[in-house]
Amino acid sequence: MADPPRSHAQWVATEYSGNASDDDARRHRISPANRRVTDGLMCRVVRACHPIIDIGLFPRGWSFTLAWQVHATHSRSFVSCLGSRLNHHSGPYSTPSPRRRRYSSAQIAPIRTSQNPISRIIQDQRPKRGTGERPLILAFGPLAGSRISSRRVRVLQETSPKTSRISGFHKLEIAERLKKVSEFATLDQVHVDQLSASSNIDAHLADHMIENMISTIAIPVGVATNMKIDGRDLLVPMATEESSVIAAVGNSSRQCYENGGFTTSMSGTQMIAQIQLLDLTDPATARVAILERRSEIEVICNECDPLLVRFGGGFRDLEVRLIEAPSGTMVITHIVIDTKDAMGANAVNTMAERLAPQLAEWTGGRPLLRILSNLADRRVARARATWRCEDIGGEAVRDAMIAAYEFADTDPYRAATHNKGIMNGVSAVVLATGNDTRAVEAGAHAYAAKDGWYRSLSRWEVTKNGDLSGVLEMPMAVGLIGGATKIHPTARAALAILDVDSAEHLARIIAAVGLAQNFGAMKALATDGIQKGHMALHAQNVAITVGATGEEVAEVARRLIESKSINTDTADKLLAEIRGA
Ligand SMILES: CC(C)(COP(=O)([O-])OP(=O)([O-])OC[C@H]1O[C@@H](n2cnc3c(N)ncnc32)[C@H](O)[C@@H]1OP(=O)([O-])[O-])[C@@H](O)C(=O)NCCC(=O)NCCSC(=O)C[C@@](C)(O)CC(=O)[O-]
Ligand SMILES: NC(=O)C1=CN([C@@H]2O[C@H](COP(=O)(O)OP(=O)(O)OC[C@H]3O[C@@H](n4cnc5c(N)ncnc54)[C@H](O)[C@@H]3O)[C@@H](O)[C@H]2O)C=CC1
């Protein structure tokens, strides 16, 4: 077999034969079971032969031809080993039989095709006219598991061979990157224009914020009204793509506004970084040896970030835990750092990396991971509010909401959705202020499981006056310094609307929004159901989906709500009516 060319990708094919009867083979081609089997086979092959891309499976009679793309980076031995692996993995659709053909690696040969290898293979494998058989074409890699339509086949023919291996992509200008993406994905001009459009963040700033940047995506920012937090009236900016989220916060806050709104507090602004030590024969001794070095550790950590120390932050505490793992006992050191107005991930990661070699020297252990924990349980924001029974619709509503809460607190299936509702509010403020949504979300869900099972982040009770009281406590690692908070102009503007003077202040506001959101969703669910309010607001999106523009949007939405059938079919008809079609 010839070496694969070093400059471009090429297609290589081999043929597989099953020992199934012709009837079975015919069934193979049409049955979902076979689809699963062949998909499974190919998944394993793909895994085994990574980084192959674009594998096609083409039935011919009762045999299959596999074709895959080989790249310049693939060595001859790599290509050769494919054969044995494919043979090895071909079991699931072939029962043992002498009739089964097995292919040695030597029999795998590049298909000699000119410019259209895929089209050639497809033609080769197409059943004869008049047999009534339709070729089944399964694609893998970029088209994983899909049955390729003739249009997709055309696209494949036109664009293959294509590769995602683009060295130096990050060094290109934004426009050049976009051109490459557009060629790779054969984008229509309308998509290219959309991706090139400017937004309220300068493209060059965005290019510095992330890697391989080609565009920006604008998420609507709204403000929640009616919020009174710790006696102060606030408008809270929220960035979200979901309708009814901001309305719910305003509506919930309205209902407790006269009763004082929200009261908030916070446990502190401390973050934990973990350092993992392995290979210790005497982990208990190592643990104590580390604890003895507390003051040295404090110095090492604080020396990493004099600016943080100047702002009143720095080392606060030390914990050392022993974790039993299958490979032995791990010694896990926690450094607890007050990161003040920074979220603090970079700050504590630097300290953990600086400290790790010292821990190794003191204990003889092997340091491995050195990274913050997103379970920021030393940075818990709290919010509470009481809704007067008469302000929320009476005892029946209150009791229904308590029952809704109890469901969430005892059933993880419900708790996940309940907490998602809380995060609708939380993540929207976190995003609007340029903070790290994933960090806060990870912390929230880990905290929700802190008692050993996944439960509600909020607690709801009936007060002695018969009112409804809600409490939310959750880790809130957000900052005013660092990350995107200082550099994203929209985040800066959002922080200006909030007029917050510390990360703690911001975290407390976010907790209040989370509680308001939770109240709104629970009340809707326990009374009218979510669709009434949510879908009424979502109706505008449905109108836009079917092509309504300008004033048509509100009109189609209005008629959709009236019709009580908020879906695209109805919207289509209503739009046609409005346009007099
Ligand atoms: C949607 C509402 C607020 C309607 O509630 P409503 O009582 O019909 O509203 P209203 O028209 O009587 O207005 C009352 C107030 O709501 C606000 N409001 C009302 N409409 C707007 C609007 N267009 N834009 C901005 N604010 C609005 C506004 O504050 C207004 O006061 P006003 O300004 O008139 O003095 C209510 O039904 C609600 O809160 N529903 C819950 C919505 C929700 O949770 N959405 C999230 C998406 S669903 C989800 O993802 C989470 C979930 C539900 O699965 C979580 C879970 O399961 O727990
Ligand atoms: N698992 C995770 O959550 C991870 C998150 N990140 C990212 O880390 C970034 C946040 O890291 P940071 O350390 O906050 O950012 P940063 O390193 O940009 O800024 C923090 C630094 O700002 C200085 N500073 C100035 N004024 C300060 C004040 N008043 N209070 C506190 N520090 C002050 C301090 O030197 C401090 O170390 C986010 O972008 C996050 O997405 C990074 C790694 C992991």
UniProtKB/TrEMBL annotation:
Identify the CDD domains for this entry: HMG-CoA_reductase_classII (cd00644)
* Domain of life of the native organism: Bacteria
Q: Which GO terms describe its molecular function?
A: hydroxymethylglutaryl-CoA reductase (NADH) activity
Gene3D superfamilies recorded: 1.10.8.660, 3-hydroxy-3-methylglutaryl-coenzyme A Reductase, Chain A, domain 2 (3.90.770.10)
State the signal peptide span. Answer: none
Tell whether rRNA-binding is among the UniProt keywords: no
A Pfam family that this protein carries is HMG-CoA_red
- Pathway entry: Metabolic intermediate metabolism; (R)-mevalonate degradation; (S)-3-hydroxy-3-methylglutaryl-CoA from (R)-mevalonate: step 1/1
Q: Which reaction does it catalyse?
A: (R)-mevalonate + 2 NAD(+) + CoA = (3S)-3-hydroxy-3-methylglutaryl-CoA + 2 NADH + 2 H(+)
Supply the EC number(s).
1.1.1.88
Residues folding into a coiled coil are: none
User: Which PROSITE patterns does the record match to this protein?
Assistant: HMG_COA_REDUCTASE_2 (PS00318), HMG_COA_REDUCTASE_3 (PS01192), HMG_COA_REDUCTASE_4 (PS50065)
Sorted keywords for this record are: NAD, Oxidoreductase
Family recorded in the similarity comment: Belongs to the HMG-CoA reductase family.
Identification of the protein by name: 3-hydroxy-3-methylglutaryl coenzyme A reductase
Species, as recorded: Sphingomonas abietis
